Amino acid sequence: MLKKPTLVDSFDRPITYLRVSVTDRCDFRCTYCMSENMKFLPKRDLLTLEELDRICSIFIRLGVRKLRVTGGEPLVRRDIMDFFRNMSKHLGRGLDELTLTTNGSQLSRHAVALSEMGIRRVNVSLDTLNDEKFSRITRWGRFDQVIQGIEAAKTAGLRIKINTVALKGFNEDELLSLVEWCGRRDFDITFIEVMPMGDIGNMARLDSFWPLSDVRRRLSKAYTLVDLALSTGGPARYVKVKETGQKIGFITPLTHNFCESCNRVRLTCTGELFMCLGQEDRADFRQLMRAHPEQDEAVAQAIHQAISRKPKGHDFDYSRHDVVGRMSRHMSHTGG
Ligand code: SAM
Ligand code: SF4
Question: Which of 92, 84, 91, 94 is CA-nearest to residue 114?
Fold first, then answer.
């Protein structure tokens, strides 16, 4: 029997999906995400693994059915596999899905263990298939290592979705080869529009903005794209390639309004709950949890209160000369 959702916001949207950033650190420095000399948070500011476990478990008790672990790079956090193991115990007991978004660099080491814990799917970010371009966009990443990680995940039986940020002048020429590369391996692929998050140094983000309407237009010259009704309650829209059966997603937070069906909230690595990726309103759970180490009810109540403040929609918009609704937070802090 379906459990009745208990977390419902003031617009009647059930909140069933929690994305949690477990670290702001990363072994890459993707140019659209971080500056090269990123300053990371001191350890004391981060939720401990025990605190993460506690708050995620409360969310699951309140009706969250899907948990995505992200970052920064989640697999670089020390002892993170213990956290995955603990969360996996909720699978089938309230939690339907435990998953992660990763840059793939540590997947070779962890894919088998993740699969054994009951993780079925993983999102791996990959913006190019070219070794030299990969080094350029990630600054510190090693292409071979990521490809090996992806292969290890596939061998371990994990279903793979590739996330590709669409970047004008960078991967425009690889659009078809990326789709075909994924198709041959039975991977899904989702394109993401670059978002105005955080100060990333001197990269001109407006110059790299490539609207997915254009990505889609170019794809439809090569394939027949059939719209899928499928919605995951987020910004992604999906199509099926008629010729191959492959699924392609488009995440267009800047050109498409997806908020009416939004089912998610985001917890940062410092314990701030953002009810909307594109708004600054947040609720601090680190202080609350440290003030009430034994009283989960106080935390549950604060979660209800925060959810009731979830806004109707977001403010992102690119105008010609500036970015309206630009967020000062980095994606790696909030969790992409
Ligand atoms: N490190 C992991 C990874 O790269 O998959 C997880 C965290 S990363 C912040 C999550 C996703 O956000 C990645 O797919 C990344 O490409 C995307 N991302 C980061 N900064 C972005 C930005 N400014 N606009 C759009 N997507 C961004
Ligand atoms: Fe790291 Fe992911 Fe950000 Fe790249 S996108 S710098 S891999 S957190």
Answer: 84
String of DSSP letters for 178-235: HHHHHHHHT-EEEEEE---BS--TT--HHHHB--HHHHHHHHHHHS-EEE-----SSS
pLDDT at 322 over 50: no
State the average pLDDT over residues 115-120.
Answer: 98
Q: Domains in the chain, start-ordered, CATH in brackets?
A: 17-334 (3.20.20.70)
For residue 90, the Cα-to-chain-centroid distance in whole angstroms is: 21
Looking at ligand 2, which residue's alpha carbon is closest to its atom 3?
Answer: 33
Give the model's pLDDT for residue 325.
44
Whether ligand 1 lies within 6 angstroms of the CB of 318 is answered as no
201-216 tens-digit pLDDT: 545 555 789 999 999 9
The Å distance, Cα 2 to ligand 1 centre, comes to 33
Q: Is 173 helix (H, G, I), strand (E, B) or coil?
A: helix
Task: Single out the residue of 335, 71, 315, 326 nearest to residue 205, CA to CA.
Answer: 326
pLDDT at 46: 98
Contacts with 132 (C-beta within 8 Å, 6 or more apart), sequence order: none
Residue 320 confidence (pLDDT): 37
The mean pLDDT value of the chain amounts to 90
Model confidence, pTM = 0.93
* Locus of tokens 């759970």: 285
Ligand 1 mean position, distance from CA 141 (Å): 14
46 Cβ partners below 8 Å, 6+ apart?
23, 24, 269, 270
Of 30, 106, 140, 162, the one to substitute when testing ligand 1's pocket (max ligand atoms within 8 A of C-beta) is 30
CA–chain centroid gap for 124, Å, is: 10
Could you give the maximum distance between any two Cα atoms of the chain, in Å? 59
